[in-house]
Amino acid sequence: SLLCEAGLEAESLRASSFPLPCPMLGPDVRTPSTIQIMQPDDTNIASNVHGGTILKMIKEAGAIISTWQCNSQNGERCVATLAQVECTNFLSSMCIGEVAHASEEITSTSKHLVEVQVNVLSENILTGAKNLTSKSTLWYVPLWLKNVDKVLEVPPVVYSRQEQEEEGWKRYEAQKLEHMETKWRNRDIVQPVLNPEPNTVSYSQSSLIHLVGLSDCTLHGFVHGGVTMKLMDEVAGIVTARHCKTNIVTIRKGFVITISGRMTFMSNKSMEIEVLVDADPVVDSSQKRNRVAGAFFTYLLLSQEGRSLPVPQLVPETEDEKKCFEEGKGQYLQMKAKRQVHAEPQP
C-alpha cells in the first residue's frame, strides 16, 4: 500500500503554479533553490521564524521537483502530492530579514512514489553568512489531473551510480516496514479537562479549530499540505509552551478542521507531542468526520543563550497516557540508537 495511508492525506496541488516540466537526469540533479525573505508575519512569539513557515516552504519545494519528475515523459499529466514526511530536523533558528533558500533533490523513486530531500539555508543578506536551518525527507505520489483519485506511475530516474538505486530501495523498504509496524493510532480527539493538575497530560493538551477557506486551498479545492503542517506545528508549540511555561521554539474548502495536541513522552531534555487532525463537513451531510493527518513533533527547551535545559517531568495519569508514554519511550530509544550508529566513524 502507498505510504500516504499513514502520512498526510494526499491533496491536489495547484498545477498552474508549477513551471513547465523539465527532464530529470538523476538524483544528483537539483532545481534552482526556492527563495523567500522572512517577514514579521512569519515569526513566532520568540521572534524567530515560525517552524510551520519552514515546513510549508519545504513541502512546496518538494512538490515542485516531484511534479517535474512525474511529467518528464510524454503521457498523462499529473501533479505530485505529499504522501508522507519521513523526517524533518530543525538545526538552527532563522530571524526576520534573513533569506531562506530551499534546495531540493530527488534521491529515489519507486513505481508510485518519489523520495525527495530538501535542505533549507538561512542567509544574512548584510553579512552573507549562511546556516543550515533544516533537513527533510519527504515522499510524494503523482495524481492524474483529470481524476485526483487515480495514482499514476513515476518515470524512473537515471542513477549515476548503481549504489544510489540500491540505497534508495533499501530506504523505501525500511520506511514501508516501519509504517506497517507503527500503524497510526486511531485515537479520539483531545477533550478538555476541568482544573487539571500541573505537569499532567491534561494540563498542556490543546486544540485548534480552523475553517478552511479559499486562501488555504489549491485550484482543485483541497487544502495545501503545508497549511495543515503549519497548523499542526502551532498546536504542538502551544502544548510545549503550556508544559514548560516559557517561549519555545486533503481537505476541501468549507470543512472545519480540528487540530488536537498532547504530550505523550519526554526524556530529560526533549518532549514528544502527538498532533491529530480531523475534518468535519459543514454543508455536505453525506460526508462524515474524517481523520486526515497525524504527526509526532519533538521539542527541546532552550535558554536565551540557546543552551539545552532540563524539561519538567510529565505525569501520565490514565492507562492510555501510560501506554503512550511507554510507546514514546520505545521510539525514543530506537531513534537514539540510530543516531549513535550514524555518529560512529565509518571504516
TrEMBL record:
The keyword Hydrolase applies. It is found in: Cytoplasm. InterPro entries: Cytosol_ACT (IPR040170), HOTDOG_ACOT (IPR033120), HotDog_dom_sf (IPR029069), Thioestr_dom (IPR006683). PANTHER family: ACYL COENZYME A THIOESTER HYDROLASE, CYTOSOLIC ACYL COENZYME A THIOESTER HYDROLASE. Signal peptide: none annotated. GO terms for cellular component: cytosol. This is palmitoyl-CoA hydrolase. It comes from Cebus imitator. Keywords: Cytoplasm, Hydrolase, Lipid metabolism, Repeat, Serine esterase. Residues 28-146, 202-305 form the HotDog ACOT-type domain. CDD domains: BFIT_BACH. The keyword NADP does not apply. GO terms for biological process: acyl-CoA metabolic process; fatty acid catabolic process. Its EC number is 3.1.2.2. The active site is at N44, D233. One of its GO terms (molecular function) is long-chain fatty acyl-CoA hydrolase activity. It is an enzyme of class 3 (hydrolase). Its main location: cytoplasm.
